[in-house]
Amino acid sequence: MSKLANKDILEKIRYGLIASCQPVDDGPMDKPEIVAAMAAASIVGGAAGIRIEGIENLKAARAAVNAPIIGIVKRDLPDSPVRITPFLQDIEDLAQAGADIIAVDGTNRARPVEIESALKKIKEMGCLAMADCSNLEEGLYCQQLGFDIVGSTMSGYTGGEIPDEPDYQLVKDLKAAGCYVMAEGRYNTPELAKTAIEIGADCVTVGSALTRLEHIVSWFATSVKSAKF
């Protein structure tokens, strides 16, 4: 299926749900054909777009849906904490595989490629650019650079204990600064996803609660096992 025109993409996903179809690494569902089925089912269920990790997964999903796709590549690097789309070659590969939007780590941490270079490469490849940020300072810097979307994706994931709640304040502050905001990170119930839009997010990404079956089942199994009778 063909890609959408860039001018239509931001409007198509505005006030919508992005389903992050990322199975548990090396789990039984970590196969391109299953990721593609997740993507198609997500669109049938009402998602405005999808977020896909990995080149082969992206190729399979692109063939299955005619909806906006945010593409990423995750890598565990020995000399950098940055995992999300760290290399320029990753950006090229994602664009060629059919991504409409390419997301990169937007945090202020040691990285193999400067964020300015990553943004330039995304634009050269004809895609929209998303920055996965952890705080307001990072988000504003990425906005000033020219990123099309600023996400709260990394809030709570750059050190220390991971919070239970989403970072509502970051979403509010990014919106107040004029960013096109993707709320992402711990929006794991329909009510929380709704709240994201109500507090100013342009769209909201939900992952584990939709597509990581191992996590979802464990939530229920743990609760059932705790039952008193």
From TrEMBL:
Pathway recorded for this protein: Amino-sugar metabolism; N-acetylneuraminate degradation; D-fructose 6-phosphate from N-acetylneuraminate: step 3/5
Q: What is its EC number?
A: 5.1.3.9
Q: Does the keyword Ubl conjugation apply?
A: no
Provide any one GO MF term from the record.
N-acylglucosamine-6-phosphate 2-epimerase activity
Query: What CDD domains does the record tag this protein with?
Result: NanE
Question: What superkingdom does the record give?
Answer: Bacteria
**What reaction is this protein's catalytic activity?**
an N-acyl-D-glucosamine 6-phosphate = an N-acyl-D-mannosamine 6-phosphate
Q: Does the keyword Isomerase apply?
A: yes
Family statement: Belongs to the NanE family.
PANTHER family per record: N-ACETYLMANNOSAMINE-6-PHOSPHATE 2-EPIMERASE-RELATED
Q: What is this protein called?
A: Putative N-acetylmannosamine-6-phosphate 2-epimerase
- Recorded source organism is Canicola haemoglobinophilus
Q: What is the lineage of its organism?
A: Bacteria, Pseudomonadati, Pseudomonadota, Gammaproteobacteria, Pasteurellales
